[in-house]
Design brief:
The structure holds two protein chains of two kinds. Chain A is mostly beta strands. Helix content of chain A is 0%, strand content 56%. Chain A has no helices and eleven strands. Chain B is 0% helix and 46% strand. Chain B is built from no helices and ten strands. In chain B, β6 and β7 form a beta hairpin. Chain B is globular and about 45 Å long. The chains are: A mainly beta, B mainly beta. The interface between A and B is medium-sized, with 25 and 26 residues.
Chain lengths: 113, 116
């Protein structure tokens, strides 16, 4: 089955700096890669996603890049703010199943003022 | 509109007892998912209901775990003979029915299960 690895497990950045989280996946049939943000004590929420026919997608201060050949994708947050502090999860679809997602273990991001 | 709701929010049970966790998806969402999140860990897929099709149970960790979805709406996750390693937050999510594209999964607040 699909295996998703996420690095780093924790990331501390100064406010205004950039943060990068990287994920690798194993299933070459995966074609959907969402990122979820989970603030302390709250439910996960989708922040951005990318499909396999696209190499990069941007939404204001966040962007995601996908390298299908290397089977890795990354989340980039620019101009970080204290409210960006949260746990971020990457996920990859499992094969041709449109609903099943395999999640990474998460990255705890701490933005210090 | 109302989001995904789950009940109870917290459940403490003794080892060996059975528990039932409930999920009310967003109205109109025909796909429903259960995940387990252990402390400091990612989301572990458990089961996936997709419309009227047979559920994908491939993530259930043992035969003590089962789930059903009545009337294509409310779902119940049942854990029989609970063990301490079952302690975790159980998250439910729903989405529009995936067909030829993906739809965002909306998560509920979770049920924190503690087995003593």
């Amino acid at each position: 089955g699909e295996n998703v690895e996420q690095h780093p497990s924790t990331l501390s950045v100064q406010e205004g700096d950039s943060a990068v989280i990287k994920c690798t996946y194993s299933d070459s049939a995966s074609n959907y890669f969402p990122w979820y943000k989970q603030e302390l004590g709250k439910r996960p929420q989708l922040i951005i996603d990318i499909r396999s026919n696209v190499g990069e997608k941007k939404d204001q201060r966040i962007a995601v890049t996908l390298n299908k050949t290397a089977k890795h994708f990354s989340l980039h947050i620019t101009e970080t703010q204290p409210e960006d502090s949260a746990v971020y999860f990457c996920a990859a679809s499992q094969g041709d199943s449109w609903g099943k997602l395999q999640f990474g273990a998460g990255t705890q991001v701490v933005v210090t003022p | 509109g109302a989001g995904v709701s789950q009940s109870p929010s917290n459940k403490v049970t003794e080892k060996g007892k059975d528990v039932e966790l409930r999920c009310d998806p967003i109205s109109g969402h025909t796909a429903l998912y259960w995940y387990r999140q252990s402390l400091g860990q990612g989301l572990e897929f458990l089961i996936y209901f997709q419309g009227n099709s047979a559920p994908d149970k491939s993530g259930l960790p043992s035969d003590r775990f089962s789930a059903e979805r009545t009337g294509g709406s409310v779902s119940t996750l049942t854990i029989q003979r609970t063990q301490q390693e079952d302690s975790a937050v159980y998250l439910c999510a729903s989405s529009l029915l995936p067909g030829t594209t993906y739809y965002e999964q909306y998560f509920g607040p979770g049920t924190r299960l503690t087995v003593t």
